[in-house]
Structure formats: C-alpha cells, structure tokens
Design a protein that fits this description.
Blueprint (H helix, E strand, L loop, with lengths): L2 H5 L35 H7 L4 E6 L7 H9 L7 E4 L11 H10 L4 E6 L5 H13 L4 E5 L20 H14 L15 E6 L8 H12 L3 E6 L3 H13 L7 E6 L5 H10 L7 H8 L4 H16 L7 E4 L8 H8 L16 H10 L1
Helix pairs in contact: 5-6, 9-10, 10-11, 11-12
C-alpha cells in the first residue's frame, strides 16, 4: 500500500455523522429520500451517519424453498436490530441464496445487508446480482472473498475467485459512482449502495490488520463488520492504530459478537473455525459456570458493554448461530441501544406464502 492509498481512501461523500436519522416514515418497505452526502437510500446508512450506535444481526439462511422459513427467522430480530445480514454460502456450505433472502426481506420492509462471496461468482454474475438486488430495494452490500470450497459440504465444487473482496468493492463502487460496468459500458440507472467488507483484528499478524482495513477503505468499503470479538485488549490495540491512521473517520466499524453455548463449543470453534480467537480465560470462565449457556450470554453482554465504550467503534454485529432466540435478551440486557428503538416491520406476508407454510406443517 502506498501513502497515496491512505491519503485518498474510499470516497466519503459527506461527514460520517449528521442527524437526524429519519423523517416521518409511512411505508416500511419504501426507499428513503437520498440525503446529501449519502450513497444509499437505506436506513442503516442513516443510523450510522446520524452517529447512532448501530446493531446488526446475522440471519442463518434456511435449507429450504419455503419463504416462511426466512420470515420466521427474521421476525426474531424485528424491532431489535438496524439491519439483517443475509449470508452467502457461509463456510462454503449451501443454503438459500443471499439474493433470494434479500428479495423476501425487502418485500416486507426489513433492512438487509446482502453478502456477496467472490468464491462463487465471476464479475458478470456479481454485477448482475447487485443490479437486481438494488432494484428490489437492497441498499447495503458486504463484499467477501469467501472461504475455500474445501471448508464446506461441497468440496468437489469448482471455486471461481475471479475477484477477491477488494476487486468486488472496486467494481461496485465504479457502478455506483461512475455509472459503468467494469467493462466500461454505461448503466442506465446506477445502484445506490452502502458498501461494506469484513475485517479481522484478532488474527495475526496484528500489525497488518489496520493496513488491510485501509486498503479495503481505499477500494470502496464504507463500513466493516469484524470477526467475533472475545479479546477486548486486542480490539483496543487495533482501534488505537485505526484511530491513529484516521480510518474510523472514513469507515464505520461494527464489531462482531456472539454468545458461546459452552466451553466445549468454544474449544471447538477455536480449533476449527479459521480466524476466530478465543482466549483461555474465556474458556475458563465458561468451564467454571454452573450454567454455561447462560454464562455465554452474560459474557456476550459484558463484551458489548465494553465495546460500546471504545472510541471509533460505530456498532456491533451480533452473530448468534443457533441461539438467535437470545438476540433480543442480549440487546436488552446490554442496553446497547440506550433506549433507541430500531426499525420495526410487523410484516404483512402474502396469503399464498402463509398457505404454503401451513400445508408443509
């Protein structure tokens, strides 16, 4: 990375914080007015630029073609989070597609963050999917390189990797800001997007992590969601360097958190999930608890309260895999929202979708 990369990161079109967040809203699914300095019509960008501490959560996509499976999982987060991530073949395992999940979520007014993995698509497919998603109301895209296929349930699949996350960010930023495909062909209507990426402050070499964040910002990242945080000291050291480089003023940083079900689960994750760092003292705390699952939730609450106080952190990204029902309790007990009420949908779901669900049951 050159000094020019740091001097000229992404393209912030306005200050990171400017309130108020919302005008009066009538239709929960309608796009918002595009405000000066904003690049999307989405609610997540408004929350972040208003200086609110944002909360996002990850929806586990179903192994199903039933839309009610998506609506049921999303309803757990309704009124508790500012946006819902739709993962894209997470861990190289096959599930309902992120574009399909987002199509359902935007239909009833939820705010999705659509993840795109470069592992499974070339630049033609990525650009086409993003245009379609934007047309459906998706305002937030998270670009990922993607785990290798050997990690998942289809190891015989052929990976694509035409691009990595940096390349995806650059192409989507060009589509948004220059109204052209990567080929140079003009778009009739550019997508209006908030672009994001992943970050991992907890994987060595630690000194490289802020530099890698700077590269992602230079490629177009306006927000990042980090890997699970179980080590506050490492996060504080990372954020100090991020602040020294001024990156927190150019990109919103949402720190990943999640409840651990038990000490055994924590040990398994530490050994088998690449990039997840869980210190020994966390495992000892769980082992010493009479009710380890409850202690895992309390640990998550404690971490959120500490993370919220770190300068430069703009929010949390809650990944409660197989514990999604605990998200509301964790958010409430941590008081992370400080009395703020996120966007609620109370979705109106078409009858034929509900009938299909009833027929299956």
């Amino acid at each position: 990375m050159t000094s020019d990369d740091l001097d000229n990161p992404c393209q912030p079109t306005g200050p990171l914080n400017e309130g108020p967040a919302f005008p009066e809203i009538i239709d929960p699914g309608a796009p918002l007015e595009l405000l000066p300095g904003h690049t999307s019509r989405g609610r997540l960008e408004r929350i972040l630029r208003a200086g609110e501490f944002a909360v996002t959560a990850e929806l586990s996509p179903p192994d199903s073609a039933d839309p009610m499976d998506v609506f049921e999982r999303a309803s757990i987060f309704d009124g508790w989070v500012d946006a819902i991530n739709a993962t894209d073949g997470s861990g190289a395992n096959c599930h309902m597609s992120s574009v399909g999940v987002c199509a359902l979520l935007t239909r009833v007014g939820y705010v999705p963050v659509m993840q795109i993995s470069a592992r499974d698509r070339n630049r033609i497919a990525i650009q086409g999917d993003v245009l379609g998603a934007s047309a459906m109301g998706v305002a937030n895209i998270l670009c990922l390189t993607g785990d290798g296929v050997q990690c998942g349930d289809h190891p015989e699949a052929r990976p694509v990797f035409d691009l990595d996350c940096m390349g995806s960010l650059e192409i989507l930023r060009t589509m948004r800001d220059e109204r052209t495909f990567s080929s140079g062909r003009k778009l009739d209507k550019a997508p209006e997007l908030l672009l994001g990426a992943a970050a991992n402050p907890f994987a060595p070499p630690y000194d490289v992590r802020p530099l890698r964040l700077a590269k992602k910002i230079a490629a177009g990242a306006q927000f990042v969601q980090t890997q699970y945080c179980y080590d506050i000291l490492l996060l504080e050291e990372y954020m100090k360097r991020v602040r020294d480089m001024g990156l927190h003023e150019k990109c919103f940083i949402l720190v990943g958190v999640g409840p651990l079900a038990s000490a055994r689960t924590a040990k398994w994750i530490r050994s088998n999930v690449p990039g997840v760092h869980i210190p020994d003292d966390v495992i000892k705390r769980l082992e010493g608890a009479e009710k380890q699952k409850a202690e895992g939730k309390q640990l998550c609450i404690d971490l959120i309260q500490q993370i919220r106080e770190i300068e430069g952190v703009s929010g949390i990204h809650l990944m409660a895999y197989r514990q999604e029902e605990s998200v509301a309790e964790i958010i409430e007990k941590s008081d992370v929202l400080k009395g703020r009420a996120p966007h609620a949908v109370d979705p109106v779901i078409p009858d034929y979708m509900q009938q299909r669900f009833k027929a299956k049951a």
